[in-house]
Structures are given as structure tokens and as C-alpha cells.
Amino acid sequence: MKLDAGVALSDDLLLQAVAHQDQSSFAELHSRLVGLVYSTAYRVLNDPDDAREVTQDVFTHVWEKARQFETRKGKATTWVYAMTRNRAIDRLRSNRRRFRLRDEFLEERKVNEGFRTSSPAMAEYERKDEMVRVGEAMAILTPEQREAIELVYGKDLTVKEASEWLELPLGTVKARVRRGLAALRQELDTNGR
């Protein structure tokens, strides 16, 4: 679908052209909607870096999935707005779960080592450092342990919900989470502490 230059098109028509891989239509749609997408993501996340990543992710998805948009079901801006909001909320939930996992490790570390933070700047540095360490430590887990921990801490499911999701007995999922957390603690204690 090739469009005539100089003709102002609706967002819906631009998105239809994007579905046919028209790069100039994509550039125009991006130009029109990038402010809406970024501000929507920022309102949900309250973090400029995360909002930029969600914005990039949304426009990548628009380029790849524009064919799935159906004008009879709504407007292009509504589709992009809903996608942005959903992706931002997913990222927020994911961040909260990662922080919850990190906080549990930090709390245990504080209790075990009598650890105290000396300043807010130092606390922020240590928080980011801990997130990196936890992320790297996840690589040592078995795929089953990692999957169970990601469902419980990443998708914010209860262990019971995770067992239903995985179609496994509750005890099996509890054991995977418990063993995975123990392995993470050991890895974090051995490396860098």
C-alpha cells in the first residue's frame, strides 16, 4: 500500500499502511503518537528510562503487528494507547516483583550481617547493585526453579496459582521455589560478599 506524498492521512490509514511495511507512514505515525505513548508510559511507571523502553517496545510492536489492527474494532490511537498502558502496567508489575525479591534478599542480608546503609545515595547504589546480582544469580537455577520463581515473584502469582499454571502439585512448586531461593542465597553469599 503506497500513499501519496503530501496528503494528510488519519492515524487509522497510516496504521493500515504500516501493516504493509510502509516506512514513511510508520515514521509519520510515530511522530504523531510518540508523545502520547511516552506520557502514558511515564504516568504509569514514573521513571523516564522505563517509559522510554516501553515506548520503544510499543512502536516495535506496532511495526510488527499492525496487520492485527482492525479499524472496525476501534481507532488506531485507542489501540496504541491500550497497548502502551498494558505494557507499562506489565513492566511496573515486573519491577515490583523484582524489587520484592531483591528486598527479601537485602532484608535477610541485613539481619545476618547487621548491615546498615550510610546515606541515601549509597542506598540507591546498593539497591541497583543488588538487582544486578540477583539477575545474574538467577542464571544458576535449574529451568524449573527459575520458572517457578519467575511465576511467584515475576508474575506475582501465589504458589497455589503457580502450581495450577504449571499443572504441577502444590508441593512440587513449593519445593522448586524453596530450593531456588536457597540456591540464590548461596550464590549471592558466595559471590561478592
Radius of gyration, Cα only, in angstroms? 22 Å
Q: Calculate the mean pLDDT score and round it.
A: 80
Number of H/I helices: 8
Which percent range fits the helix content? over 70%
The total tally of domains equals 2
Describe the structure.
This protein is mainly α and 193 residues long. The chain folds into two domains: 11-91, Rna Polymerase Sigma Factor, Chain: A; 117-190, Winged helix-like DNA-binding domain superfamily/Winged helix DNA-binding domain (Arc Repressor Mutant, subunit A, Orthogonal Bundle). Helices cover 76% and strands 0% of the residues. The chain is elongated. The termini are far apart. 23% of the residues are buried.
How is the secondary structure organized here?
Layout: H1 11-19, H2 23-45, H3 48-65, H4 76-113, H5 120-137, H6 143-154, H7 159-166, H8 170-190
Helix pairs in contact: 1-2, 2-3, 2-4, 3-4, 4-5, 6-8, 7-8
Could you write a compact summary of the structure shown?
It contains eight helices and no strands. With 193 residues, it is an all-alpha fold.
Features:
193 residues, mainly alpha, Rna Polymerase Sigma Factor, Chain: A, Arc Repressor Mutant, subunit A, 2 domains, 8 helices, 76% helix
